[in-house]
Amino acid sequence: MKIAISGTENIFSLFHSGNLEILLKTANKYKIGYIELWVPDNVETSEINKAKILLDKYNIKVACLSSWKHLNSLGEEITTQKFLLEAIDIAEFLGSSIINTYFGGNVKRSVEEAIQNCKEIIIPVLKKAKEKNVTIVLENEFDPGKEDPNCTDITRKAERLLKLMEGINSPHFKCNFDACNFYFAGEEPYPKAYEILKKHIGYVHLKDGAKYVSEVYD
């Protein structure tokens, strides 16, 4: 099992000078040999060569290359497809076999339409992923955000995410199982969501979390 530290925390963001080195030093401090590298949070695509030099310096590997791209968000699909095709080459260069992305909500599509649209977007990506032996993992999400106030992102519910996985039906397209995100979305993470999706899990996020109660928390 590979255990990595994720670079999504604010102290590792591009707003901080030397952010990637901070991430690598943190992983090194806790004797963690892998990181989850976020583009562009930790590094811009144009800086990948410099990132590789730093990774080699600290002898730390990339377990997963991640971004905030969405496969189903209105107007974002083609941009996401283009990024994922590029990300496969970046992942290969960095020695990673996993790329993490998101689905996103879209009030104009039913579950069936969203799955069909995803198929059309992801087919060329998965063809290249197969050639490079890379797996695209889809993280289940919880935050509707201003673009999805009606919570239409199908990854919020295990049964709908299962339909998507079965609809795509590729060994190079798996779930990034985030139990805390299911919890925030009002879905029982375990045993329900896990048992439904376990055949399709290719990667896992672990974090803590709690529902906000104003009387309890400041």
Major sheet strand order: 1-2-3-4-5-6-7
The sequence of SSEs as H and E is EHEHEHEHEHEHHE
Q: Percent of residues in helical segments?
A: 40-55%
Low-confidence stretches: none
Alpha-beta classification: alpha/beta
Distance between the termini: 37 Å
| Overall number of strands | 7
Radius of gyration, taken over Cα atoms and rounded to an integer in Å:
17 Å
In one word, what is the shape? globular
**How is the main sheet built?**
7 strands, parallel
The share of residues in extended strands comes to 15-25%
Tell me, rounded to a whole number, the average pLDDT.
92
What is the tally of helical segments? 7
Please describe what this structure looks like:
This protein has helices at 19-29, 48-58, 77-94, 111-132, 158-168, 179-184, 189-197, and strands spanning 4-6, 34-38, 61-70, 98-102, 135-139, 173-178, 201-205. Helices cover 40% and strands 18% of the residues. It is an alpha/beta fold and 218 residues long. The protein is globular and about 45 Å long. α1 packs parallel to α2 (48-58) and α4 packs across α5. It has 7 helices and 7 strands. A 7-stranded parallel β-sheet has the order 1-2-3-4-5-6-7.
